[in-house]
């Protein structure tokens, strides 16, 4: 509860500072390369922008809820159940420098740049130059949160190399939401 209160206070402080006319901050990407999104309101166009806050984990950009056709979006509830499911693997696809700061208990470390080379650890078998993923486990993938591109990049590579999209479950909230909700994290679990 303390972590959730801290996260809420952090976000409210950032919002108040922004609204109080705080100094101009670096504009971050929202969708793709765009740093603004214009909404047509009854009062005319309104520009939505994004800035780095103390609550944010990185400077990425918003990731779609379903990064590739066939991938299943999941919440914390499904992640919790997957942690005890022998047919599932919860995979932290963040770089090691992020994982050492804390991760979801019982998850395995597989940085996004290595996933396509390590499909054997997810139940696939190398068949010459291709992968046979007919016996693949269910993979619950996460990274830093809604603006982190690491797990979507890895999931795209998995599918490209033969991993079935319908066996991939994407926790878009990632560590940002996990920690904001005050759920247990572990350090040094490799």
* Poorly predicted tracts of residues: 6-18
Order of neighbouring strands in the sheet with most strands: 3-9-8-4-5
**CATH topology tier name of the largest domain:** Oxidized Rhodanese, domain 1
- What's the CATH superfamily of the largest domain, by name? Rhodanese-like domain
Shape designation: globular
Can you give the helix content as a percent range? 10-25%
CA-based gyration radius: 18 Å
Q: Which class of secondary structure composition applies to the elements?
A: alpha/beta
* Number of continuous helical runs: 5
Description:
Strand 6 (125-127) and strand 7 (130-132) form a beta hairpin. The chain has helices at 2-19, 76-82, 96-99, 150-160, 174-180, and strands at 36-41, 44-49, 72-73, 88-92, 108-109, 125-127, 130-132, 138-142, 168-171. Helices cover 25% and strands 19% of the residues. The strands form 3 sheets. It has a 5-stranded parallel sheet, with helices on both faces. Strands 1-2 form a two-stranded antiparallel sheet. Strands 6-7 form a two-stranded antiparallel ribbon. The protein is α/β, with parallel strands linked by helices and 190 residues long. It is globular. It folds into 2 domains: 2-49, no CATH class; 72-180, 3-Layer(aba) Sandwich (Oxidized Rhodanese, domain 1).
Features:
Oxidized Rhodanese, domain 1, two-stranded antiparallel ribbon, globular, 5-stranded parallel beta sheet, 25% helix, 190 residues, alpha/beta, 2 domains
Layout of secondary structure:
Blueprint: H1 2-19, E1 36-41, E2 44-49, E3 72-73, H2 76-82, E4 88-92, H3 96-99, E5 108-109, E6 125-127, E7 130-132, E8 138-142, H4 150-160, E9 168-171, H5 174-180
Parallel strand pairs: 3-9, 4-5, 4-8, 8-9
Antiparallel strand pairs: 1-2, 6-7
